[in-house]
Amino acid sequence: MISLKKILNISLLLLLVISLFPVPSVNAGASFNTDSQDRPLLQVANHTKNPGCTSCWATSVYADNGDEISFAVYYHNTSNEIARNVRIRANLPSEAFDNRTISVNLLADNTSSITDSVNVNLSSRQELTFIPGTVKWYPNQGTNYHSLPFGQSDNLITTSSGLNIGDLEPGWGDQGYLVFRARVGNADNDAPTAFTNPANGIAQNSAVLNSSVNPNGNYTTIWFEYGTTLSLVDKTYSQYLDSHNIENVNAMASGLNPETKYYFRVVARNAKGTTYGNILSFTTSKTVAAPAPVYIAPTATYNPPAPVNYTPVVTTYNILPDMLGIIKDALDGPDELVTLILTLDDQEARVGDEVNLNIYLKNKGNFAVSDVALKIDLPVGIEYINFTEKPFEYTNGEVINYNLGTINVDESKEFDVTFRVGEKVKAGTVLEFKGYIDYENNEKILRIVEDTELLDIIIPDGLTASIFSTFESLFGPWFGYMMFGIFLGFILTYLFYVK
After folding, report:
1. Are the beta carbons of 174 and 139 closer than 8 angstroms?
2. Mean per-residue pLDDT for 90-103?
3. DSSP secondary structure string for all residues of 464-491
4. Where does the pLDDT of residue 292 fall: very low under 50, low under 70, confident under 90, or very high at 90 and above?
5. Which residue of 33, 102, 199, 443 shows the fewest CB atoms closer than 10 Å?
């Protein structure tokens, strides 16, 4: 029979063992935007009056009939928990107003919703209507918008359920924005509707600007605004429509500079309001020098031989499956000029291991590409150590941005990122590394190429690691630590006291 003294010794030993494995604090749920560096949940800007402006976001806005108002929703999981089924809901009023507070809600399954609002002031009593197709989602600190997840329609943002952006990991790496627009005007759409269409007939000094306009039964004046900046200082001549149908309207922009990028949009105005179309761009063609005159000396009359008839020989090849990608790249032509390949030196790692990510890119086109920028998204839990190229921009420990400038034909670049798997990464996790290259091709069109590499975090070797991983996977990290400590305590007690 074990004495009281032995029981006390066993208890003290168990407490000592458990104390070696401190229990992490357990957060009751996720939380949003509680860091002092966070942006406001909701900001607003007049998209029509300030197109492309990045410093115009504010907590209030003034708009006229026909203006489009942009709303930007910022989110950041500031807890230690994954926010489940994060949703964004915009509360647009159904009735007309001239001054109104507009709010949005940020919701998740495992936290209370948060709300923010902005003030919208109108020059006359009008309605504010969501514009389908204007939602743009910028996840993971990205500057390029992504398709909405789960195949959702963007008009869900104005419903009671909201727009679902999925689960949100804690940390700065998963912060992001969602932007949408609403139009000021009457519900009966008496103001004209107008959409800018791509330009054509682009030459060195001119281009044809195109649009689709519906006057909605009112006498409507239509013109185009254009310029080398988003201020659009130049205008075409005015045209007039009076119908209930969508009409194609175009105009010639002349006196342009060669090899210059121009922005443009259509504007339609009637007694019910003014509507500004979306802004598009085009680049004028190069100046081609006239060929120098060539003098051909007179020669004697020459009768060429009769042509020889021949049948071309066509050779058929069997394409192996691994060649399909190469052939596809060749057929795609200038759409994929730059190749980007991410390669990890090992596909598996343990907590604490150092791993190297190799980044390889090559210009495989027939001309140089410019304004090449590299972005690497490091997953949450990764501890950055080194990047071979300097200078570069390193954001919040999770994003690397590097400007490469121009890459010539057949030129290749290669870099390495070294990092350590942090202690907060669980065994069994698959970490995703994403790389992006954006550049301008010979037509001055922005192209984006991306690649992804996965890293499996495996369980450490040995019986101890296996026991701990089992407890952790069944009951969570804190329970795994505690139960492993108790298990080890009983083993020690058995060895020292019972035997």
Report:
1. yes
2. 92
3. HHHHHHHHHHHH-HHHHHHHHHHHHHHH
4. low
5. 443
Q: Are 198 and 282 in contact (CB under 8 A)?
A: yes
The yes-or-no verdict on residue 342 having pLDDT over 90 is no
Q: What is the DSSP letter of 495?
A: I
| β-pair partners for 452 | 434
117 CB-near residues (< 8 Å, 6+ apart): 42, 101, 102, 103, 104
Please give the structure tokens belonging to residue 140. Answer: 């993971």
466 has pLDDT over 80: no
Residue 335 is encoded by which pair of tokens?
């759409």
For the residues 205-230, what does the mean pLDDT come to?
90
The pLDDT of residue 314: 40
- Higher-confidence position of 114 and 325: 114
| Complete DSSP assignment for 27-92 | -SS--BS-STTPPPSEEEEETTTSTT-SS--BSEEEE-TT-EEEEEEEE-B-SSSPEEEEEEEEE-
Quick one: which H or E segment has residue 416?
Answer: strand 412-421
**The amino acid at 296:** I
Residue with tokens 């000396």: 297
Task: Specify the DSSP class assigned to residue 497.
Answer: I
- pLDDT > 50? residue 90: yes
pLDDT in tens, 182-196: 988 865 557 788 999
Q: Minimal CA–CA distance to 486: which of 7, 25, 10, 24?
A: 10
Rama region for 16: left / alpha / beta (φ>0; ψ in -120 to 50; rest)? alpha
